[in-house]
UniProtKB/TrEMBL annotation:
E.C. no: 4.2.1.150
Catalysed reaction equations from the record: a short-chain (3S)-3-hydroxyacyl-CoA = a short-chain (2E)-enoyl-CoA + H2O
Family: Belongs to the enoyl-CoA hydratase/isomerase family.
Subunit structure: Homotetramer.
Protein name: short-chain-enoyl-CoA hydratase
Pfam families per the UniProt record, alphabetical: ECH_1 (PF00378)
Biological processes per GO annotation: fatty acid beta-oxidation
InterPro entries, per the entry: ClpP/crotonase-like_dom_sf, Enoyl-CoA_hyd/isom_CS, Enoyl-CoA_hydra/iso, Enoyl-CoA_hydra_C
Enzyme class, broadest EC rank: lyase
Length: 262
């Protein structure tokens, strides 16, 4: 597929995905969502890629779903658009490789919902966050009513969604929406360093940790802990577990960077 709105680059063990529609502040139209779906396919298939950094070109991460595309949609078309977005965001959330969102600027509406589908969020001091949908006569439609409250708590999520207010990066950090705030020039390097740190750990263990956390959040604590025991047990069938523990015992160091993903 020819990509018009997204750049996919590989740097060692990392895939760098840049939403690249700066003229529209990277607003998500159907074409961009379809491309993102394709990019997730490519990353999923590529065994060399062990972590993903997701960012935006220009002064915006993503300024929301594309209002000019949405405005004339009828019910059927609106539903189709919603289904596409939800499918892509869920795929990203469940991708068995960690995704770090490097939030460089406007992270609004569908953009904030995209960021919430990532595992870890880093923000530039210039980033702005919000769910302004109610100011447009709609509700958040790509998971905002669900994921935002899971990440920052119900009260804070309701305040952001009901008011539609825009907050800065420090406020987003205070609310727990982002893990860290860094200077704009440092953002991408910081995200890549974090991605590499993760990618240098045992890939199967990282993947299973993500699956256990995500699945556990959907269920009761007993089922979740039982699932944790299953995945913990499964790691003992890997070469990486044997080699990782032997290296530690014999050489007094971790195998970091040398795991085989087997
Ligand atoms: N959609 C389309 N175009 C956008 C856009 C957006 N969300 N945001 C910005 N743009 C375009 C602007 O129209 C402008 O285009 P031109 O006039 O140059 O052609 C260009 O990007 C530059 O924007 P500005 O000139 O406005 O730039 P400023 O720096 O002055 O302002 C801003 C930046 C981010 C404060 C402002 O652009 C703004 O307020 N943008 C809208 C932000 C917003 O309301 N975002 C939420 C969108 S609603 C659903 C699923 C999901 C959703 C809904 C339904 N279903 C289930 C169906 C999600 C909804 C949303 O995300």
């Amino acid at each position: 597929m020819e990509l018009k709105n997204i750049i996919l680059e590989k740097e060692g063990k990392i895939a760098l995905v840049t939403i690249n529609r700066p003229k529209a502040l990277n607003a998500l139209n159907s074409e961009t969502l379809t491309e993102l779906d394709y990019v997730i396919d490519e990353i999923e298939k590529d065994d060399e890629v062990l972590a993903v950094v997701l960012t935006g070109a220009g002064k915006s991460f993503v300024a929301g779903a594309d209002i000019s595309e949405m405005k004339d949609k009828n019910v059927i078309e609106g539903r189709k658009f919603g289904i596409l977005g939800n499918k892509v965001f869920r795929r990203l959330e469940n991708l068995e490789k960690p995704v770090i969102a490097a939030l460089n600027g406007f992270t609004l509406g569908g953009g904030n919902e995209l960021a919430l589908s990532a595992d870890i969020r880093l923000a530039s001091t210039k980033a702005k966050f919000g769910q302004p949908e109610v100011s447009l006569g709609i509700t958040p439609g790509f998971g905002g009513t669900q994921r935002l409250s899971r990440v920052i708590g119900v009260g804070a999520a309701k305040e952001l969604i009901f008011t539609g207010k825009i907050i800065n990066a420090d406020e987003a950090y205070r609310l727990g929406l982002v893990n860290k705030v860094v200077e704009p020039e440092a953002l991408l390097e910081e995200a890549k360093t974090l991605a590499n740190t993760i990618a240098n750990n045992a890939p199967i263990a990282v993947k299973l940790s993500k699956v256990a956390i995500n699945k556990g959040l959907q269920t009761d604590i007993d089922t979740a802990l039982s699932f944790e025991s299953e995945v913990f047990g499964a790691t003992f069938s890997t070469e990486d577990q044997k080699e990782g523990m032997n290296t530690f015992l014999n050489d007094k160091k971790y195998l970091t960077g040398n795991f085989k993903n087997k």
